[in-house]
Amino acid sequence: MAEASWYVVHTYSGYENKVKVDLEKTIKNRHLEDTILEVSVPTEDVIEIRDGVKKNITRKLFPGYVLIRMIMNDDTWYVVRNTRGVTGFVGPGSKPVPLTDEEIASMYQQRTEVEIDLEVGDAVEIISGVWEDSQGYVKAIDHEHQTVTVNMDMFGRDTPVDVSFTDIRKL
Fold this sequence. Notes:
Layout: E1 5-11, H1 16-29, E2 36-40, E3 43-50, E4 53-60, E5 65-70, H2 74-81, E6 86-89, H3 101-107, E7 113-116, E8 123-126, E9 135-142, E10 147-154, E11 157-164, E12 168-170
Parallel strand pairs: 3-7
Antiparallel strand pairs: 1-5, 1-6, 2-5, 3-4, 8-9, 8-12, 9-10, 10-11
């Protein structure tokens, strides 16, 4: 018996969860649980900060795509390809290409990202940490490290201080 691999299916934008539900129903109805093992829409948790209010949201990692772990044969290809909302497998022509183990591992690494609605020059207040209750102006934003450089007035001079996204609030 062939080994199951992960494949990527392209869907209409916004139809990822609908495709997942429809495919899971079809798998159950046609008793394909042994050949189509898992259907996944990878998501990530993001902390969004707007006007100083933290909000946890879940965002799709790959909008327009669904991951399917299955044993590729004519029947499974047909079922997946003919599911409403699916536009096709990812791969050259009509031949699906399975993902490597390294690609799958990197997709499922847990990470929490913080998005913030600040721009350079915005006035901010530091709400926690060593500089708590201090105010200053945003000098630079580092999205990769999720920090903001804030210019604060100390002893009559502008002093740059790096602060985490979660430790500041826009004024």
